[in-house]
């Protein structure tokens, strides 16, 4: 077997493996989707249908209008957007310090930050809950925004430090000659040139807080007005455990914004994942 044949065989095997992984990953989502389109009560009928014979959007209308699913949808959007914006500001400042300023233990500080991100959430949920309770923020949206800002800081800092380190240091030198201070360099020089990196980090922060469940479940304390999508879907599963069309519709509605973000901004997301290694 020559090189060209080996290359074709390797490409075919890669394509088959990718297809199998895609089918394995997307099959549950497809099943949930077709279940959400079935008329109420027909989800238990046999034989199993790969596509509903009478598809309907009744489950979506019920979930949005009668069951108040628009409220957790709104709450998740508010929480995730706030986390992306304010968390990005904190991460950008820390990344700028690590990537552009010269001080002792710069690399060690970045590694220490990443070690903090490796702590399992189950370990931090109790002290986080007590801090939020002391601040008087239980059963409010800030109770989810503030912790998630710092939960997403390590990853965002790493991505932005990678991006900032690729910018020429001659930019800093030229700005210093013009009399700029470090913070002025950060705001007027580095940030405008780092829009792709900032956008990538913001997307990851948004997606990370969109699907966060443990903290949201603890601090909302069962109050429907402040619940986010993961908590609302769990409550759906408990309250309407036999109404799978409603539950499936809620799951699909929670996935639609994430799918749209990934499809529309996939180039930016990939660029964030493939940012160059941090150079110090």
Can you describe what's shown?
α3 runs antiparallel to α4 and α7 runs antiparallel to α10. The mean pLDDT is 84. This protein has 14 helices and no strands. It has 280 residues and is mainly α. The two termini are 46 Å apart. Helix content is 74%, strand content 0%. It has two domains: 55 residues; 212 residues, MetI-like (MetI-like fold), CATH 1.10.3720.10.
Topology readout:
Layout: H1 3-36, H2 58-66, H3 70-100, H4 106-117, H5 121-134, H6 142-151, H7 153-166, H8 170-177, H9 182-193, H10 195-210, H11 214-220, H12 229-239, H13 244-264, H14 266-273
In short:
With 280 residues, this protein is mostly helical. It has 2 domains: 3-57; 62-273, MetI-like (MetI-like fold).
Number of domains: 2
Q: Which whole number gives the mean pLDDT?
A: 84
Backbone CA Rg: 23 Å
What sort of overall outline do the alpha carbons produce when their principal axes are compared? globular
Q: Give the name of the CATH architecture of the largest domain.
A: Orthogonal Bundle
Biggest sheet, open or closed, and with what strands and sense?
none
Find the CATH superfamily of the largest domain.
MetI-like
The counted number of beta strands is 0
Report low-confidence residues grouped into runs of 5 or more. none
One letter per element, helices H and strands E, the order comes to HHHHHHHHHHHHHH
Helicity, in percent? over 70%
CATH class of the largest domain: Mainly Alpha
Beginning-to-end CA distance, first to last residue:
46 Å
